[in-house]
Amino acid sequence: PADTRDAARVRSAPAPLTDVARLCVCDLLVAQCDVNCCCDPDCSAEDFSLFTTCSVPVVTGDSQLCNQKAAVYSLDVEANPPERIFKLIDQVNPSIFCIHATNYKQALYLKSPEIPTAENFDQLLEKFGGASFRAEPEIWDLDTDAPNPPEANETSRYEFGVPVQTEDSFLRLPSPVVTSWCSDANPAGFLVNQATKCIRSVSVEKCDSIQALSMLFYINSSILAVTDMSLFFQVNITVQSIVVQSLNGMRSLLSSSDVLRLPMVLDDLCINAVLGVNYHITHTDTGEIIEAAAAFVLGAISKEALSIEQSFEISFTQENTQPVPLSGNPGYVVGLPVRAGFQPQGYPSPAAFLFAALALSSNKHSQLTILQSTSTQDCLAAQGARAPVLFSYNMISGCKLRITAAMKCQPLAQTLLDVLKGQSFPEYVASFGNSQAQDVLDWVPITQLHISEQKISQTLQSPCQIPVSLGIEVKWTKYGSLVNPQARIVNVTATITTSTLKQLPSGRERIIPITSSVVFTDISAPAEPSYKAWPTINIKLPFDFFYPFV
Questions:
Q1: pLDDT band at 474 (very low <50, low <70, confident <90, very high)
Q2: Per-domain residue ranges of the chain
């Protein structure tokens, strides 16, 4: 009974999570009308008059609820012009196992699962390791007339793709629409990382009055933390950094970004004009924006210039998490780094490791790397210099090692191995460009092979086996639809080749080449044709059919 519980835990039932009148599953284009989508709020009466049917006639929420609202859409084709008809009806679920009320608070939003680590594994095993487990829900009062607390209304949180709203409109991310000219009507979608470039028409004499060239145009509006304007919680856009670019392309970072630099005319030049803006938005796991920053690239425009190219970028990061650069979504993009990592130490069982230590792989960006060639071609000087492996790019690099008779074999072999593989060679490679660390099945183990397995002697007075090359073969395939196939890595093999170093006379030296290479192999099966093979025709062509060619 509720009266036997703590009175502080008794709360009113939450507001419905889904307002079917605002829900539209066929609304795919931002700020544009989708054809035959009768629930699209961007469509006008003129648009509805051109529709032939409603692609989604009925919109409902959770089908397991006993009673719920349903939005019904239809077209009145007899009207002139045709009109859209909208009705909101009560729908009753006849099943005896329907849900009467959604009063379990923890089920009202998606909570990020706690990733097992060496410190909390025993605690999680004790809580979830049994045959069954349960979480004690809070007691809800089914009195729907009681006002809902502000924290219970989750409908005001941002969702994926929803335009980021400001106090007067939405956050603009200029981009080319039909031509390459900039359009300021492109809204930035929540959690949608974008990078655009476009051309802006300029006039040096009027550069101080062109809003798109001023920093204020991009930071003067505060961002709404949630989509509900009535809550009136705003986040100001702060200036993270300012980079100044000269006419010849040289860039320099300003030590202070507190002072706004507005465009002005100076000696037939327009200085402090915005050439690029990089937004960075920080949000919570429930879809609330808590921080916004902008990095600017300012430059000078000569009097002869009639237009300039501007670049814009926006990225999103969840609070208390470290951003990991992606190499595609979902498939790899040609030219982007191959992501890699290794299994963290200290996990009690293979099922428990979730690649929590990806950021500690062969470099800080969790990328597969190879030896980077230097101008001196000295292997000892090149130790530590690494180059990322770029998807679909076959690469080869190398260096030269000067060996004397006084060198010890085992330290020499270990040094060369470190030069070829790096300090921490990864154990796994991401199969997709956006594979997450917790998705264990999305990571492909690297198979390491050694061509020679002879033991390494202690000195160079007897035959010594040293590694001379590292060859990495990456096999990938086209995954998904034939219309838009996605690149997926299915196998990675790293082969170390050793060579026998013969005895050197005293006082003599020898130079040996050390090489590292990467080869990408497409193993996609060819698509089977949808038609049957054409029949062959057994005929004989005239002897002069190809004349004058033989």
A1: very high
A2: 16-107, 162-324, 327-454+462-522
